What does this fold into?
Amino acid sequence: MDQFRVKEDNPKHLEFQFQGRLDIQSVPKLWRRCTSLQSKYNPKLITILADHLDYCDGAGIALLLALKQEQIKNKHQFQIQGLKPQFQQLMDLISVSPASSLSKEEVAESAQRRLTISIGKLALNTLREIRNDIIFLGSLTFHLIATLAHPQKIRWKDFWAVLDETGPNALPIICLVGFLMGLISAFQAAIPLGEFGTQIYIANLVGISLVRELAPLMTAVLLAGRTASAFAAEIGTMKINQEIDALTTLGLDAVKFLTVPKVIAATIIAPILNIFLIIFGLIGCGIVMKMLGFNLNIYLEQLKSAIELGDFIGGLIKVCVFGLLVAGVGCLEGLKTKTGASAVGNSTTRAVVNSIIVIIIADGIFAGLYYVLGV
Amino acid sequence: MPPIIEVKNLTVKYDTRIILDDMSFTVNSGEIFIVLGGSGSGKTTLLNQMIGLEKPYKGQITIEGDNIVTAAFEKRLRILRKIGVMYQSGALFGSMTLLENVALPLEELTDLPQEAILAIAHNKLSMVGLGEFGNYMPAEISGGMKKRSAIARAMALDPKILFLDEPSAGLDPITSAQLDQLILNLSQVLGITFVIVSHELSSIFAIADRIIMLHHGKIEAQGDPRILRDKSKNAFVQQFFHRKFE
It folds into this structure.
């Protein structure tokens, strides 16, 4: 702005004179000045003298319109003199927003309404989500039973691909984690048991805890990190690319088509991975036992006496259920993917977090059940 | 009056494949200039070059005399302030409302007070007929509205040149015609120069002042589209305008 003058000798009638350029460079300085003068005097009339206004861009027009809107809101007058036709045309392109001329009471009322609406929306969304979860659970159960009754209907190509991805590809990390868990647990047990001269029972402690609890739990957590996230990302990306819509319009059930092979594959592969984790855990424990001076035969005999078939079967049943839950949650979160750049990332995170929560809850139920059954 | 954009000897290669071959043309201030061509003719590559997203193999692109190809960081920012871009999909930020989308460049690149930013953003949305939709999320509006919102965002900083990538693609004829009218209005009222990549013939005849036709990375023809359609002897031009193929 080359020059800006205000005639404020009559508080009832303010005159703003703009000269030169009223653009995005000059408006930041003028905005507060003009609006504060307007609110200070609350004039009956504002006159804009624009005879010498050479250029006016979107920011300049926004300033003129803001002054005009405030005058209209206060039921006062506003006039512009000498504005070049092209700038007048630009002003005419923009309609005065009814929202921006709300009174303070109306603004407060609309804020209250917004709060009520957002609470209502949240409640509705939660209910809708629960409903969708129930529908998914029902549909998955139905299709799983139908597939088990007619195994020839399973999509074998997808099934083997998922089995390959969740099984052999996960093996190195499963073996490493199992080995380290056995090793660490044995070292941790060595000190307190050594105080009583009962280090031989490290084999019992590590063996039973691995077979009954740690191996199924760690296998499931690793499945949640690798498999649930992968399922959610894959299905989520399909949803964003409208591939799920395409399936639906082809008359295919997305749950049956995408979820069933994944869930069955994860349920089958989980106990196999669990066995590998146990074996490598026991190898890790065996190394510590050897370092503590125990013969390998004694260690194996001790394991044999400690671990019963029931412990092993109980662990396998548990990990099968964990595999089913992890795959189910991963697929569900994938199907729930919304739109936008962060949607797939959010689904993946939710898949991992929710899988782990579901695993822990299921583990608690199993603990109570096995206690009651005496397993 | 010197041209607002000048493209000189522009050559773009991906590995050994030549996408744009020694291309030269100018765009005059205030005109609606359309880059026309079939799929794979290099239209979008040319657009990406002009807005500085890609570097050419050789040649120069000047915007108001400043070469965007060789411009250093600060100068490049100054050049970018003169242009606005609407991408084919709209590329609105999905986590923001339409008002927030339009307000974003104003918040990040100007010293305007927040109330002024919101007023300007609202005005820009009003200009494209979406004044009442400021609080909507991009996912809640139609394809045509997304494109209009993207134009509003591109106009946020009052650029001198607007680049539009396939504005009519995927729109019904009525919405497409509304968008054409909007472009004409903005051109006439604000004096914005438009560079539009398109292959929608109806839009081209409705709004273009001048076109260039690309074919296999070269300019096959340029000029007034109506004259080219009626008088050009070029076989490709005739095929394109009269929807023939051999």
